[in-house]
Every structure is written in C-alpha cells, then in structure tokens.
Amino acid sequence: MAHLIIEKQEEWNQQKVRELLRLPENKKCFDCPIKSPFFVNMSVQTFICMRCSGLVREVGHRVKSISASKFSGPEVVALQHGGNEVARSIWLSHYNVANNSEPETDSDVRSFMRQKYHEQKWLDRERAVAHAEKVKNIIKSMFAEDGTRHSKSSINSLKRQSSSCSDRPKITAPTKSWIDDNVPIGLMMQSKNNSSNTGDLLSFHDIPNNN
C-alpha cells in the first residue's frame, strides 16, 4: 500500500513538472535560443536544453532530466516558485537584451554562463536572497525535514495564503542541501561573507530529493 502511495505521488510530481514546462516562459532554454527544453537546472530552477544541461554542470549546477528523473515534493514546489522568467529577473536583471544577441555556439554559451553564474555580472543580489528566503519558508511550512508533507490542514493554510497573492508562485527546491543544490558555487562563496543578508539561508536543514 505504501509503495502504491509513493508511486502515485511520484506520478503527480512528474505531471506538475511537465505542466510547468508547458508555460510560455519555459518553452525556450534559459541559457540559449533552443526551444523545447527537456532538462531542469535545479540550482536556479530553470528549464534548459540537452546541450546546456551539460554545460551548466561545468559551473557546478545540478541538473535533472524531466523524462528520466524523479522529483521530490520540495523540488516541485521550488520549481513552481521558479522558472525561466523568475530566474531572468534575478540572474539577468541588469542585462541589456536589446544590445546583446543570444549566445549560440558552445563556446559562446559557456562564456555567457560563466559571466552569469560565476562572475554574477547581471545579478540582482537583493532579489535573489529575498526569493531564496521566501521559498525556503514555504517549503519548511509544507514539508518536514525528511521531505514528508505536513498535515493537510497546514497545506490548506498555505494554499489560502498563496491564493491571496497576485503573482504566480515561483522558485527553488532543496534536495540534499539548500545551499549545495540551490545556490551556485560563485554565489555561495560570496554569501558566506555576507551574513547580514544570508545567515538564515545558510543554516537551512537538509531535505532529501528523489533521483
């Protein structure tokens, strides 16, 4: 019986991820012009193509295949609060799209990723920290430290709170470690030196993921 419940939950999680993939903002790879992405960059909660799924690993990000991977409840919630449009407002906040063409070759995409994630050239740090803290609190309110859901009454309370917001929920899902899985290496290194903004974020409890 427990096995069937787990299977049903995994199917539901997979369905939710596929629904997110069909949203207009997620139909194109976040890191290049290729359409119909089939991978998820769990470190920044974006939808990416096969080529970029390999390249983002070079900058320390964690990737999952939408068709071949299982997603935990916290991961699904994180993606629901993330997506390409939210990531764009954080990682490309100061990027001038009108004056720059999208990178297409592997070399150009790799260079673009390094500027975006390691150098954080266009990052809105304040928005990134606020976003991570918001999602962390949502996940903590919905799930226990072992990844199991809280009682139905707690979830209903959260849904009522979310329905009162005008914007669609968006962001990140912790898996093995909130910092290791959801903050790229470059940002993590700088965050450790900025305790006034990220101290609570760094102390988030581990939540397991499904592989």
The average pLDDT is: 77
Number of strands: 3
Query: Share of helix among residues?
Result: 40-55%
Q: Which structural class do you get from the secondary structure elements?
A: mainly alpha
What sequence of helices (H) and strands (E) makes up the elements?
Answer: HEEHEHHHHHHHH
Strand order of the largest sheet: 2-1-3
Q: Spans with pLDDT under 50 lasting ≥5 residues?
A: 161-208
- Report the span from N to C terminus: 22 Å
Strand content: under 5%
Q: Gyration radius, to the nearest Å?
A: 17 Å
**Number of helices, where a helix is a run of at least 4 consecutive DSSP H or I residues:** 10
* Basic shape: globular
Largest sheet: 3 strands, antiparallel
Describe the model.
With 211 residues, this protein is mostly helical. The model is unreliable at 161-208 (pLDDT under 50). Strands 2-1-3 form a 3-stranded antiparallel beta sheet. The protein has helices at 2-21, 50-55, 73-80, 84-91, 106-118, 125-142, 152-163, 178-182, 185-191, 195-202; strands at 39-41, 46-48, 63-65.
List the helices and strands and how they pair.
Elements: H1 2-21, E1 39-41, E2 46-48, H2 50-55, E3 63-65, H3 73-80, H4 84-91, H5 106-118, H6 125-142, H7 152-163, H8 178-182, H9 185-191, H10 195-202
Antiparallel strand pairs: 1-2, 1-3
Helix pairs in contact: 1-3, 6-10
What brief labels describe this structure?
3-stranded antiparallel beta sheet, 10 helices, 211 residues, mainly alpha
Short description:
With 211 residues, this protein is mainly alpha-helical. A 3-stranded antiparallel β-sheet has the order 2-1-3.
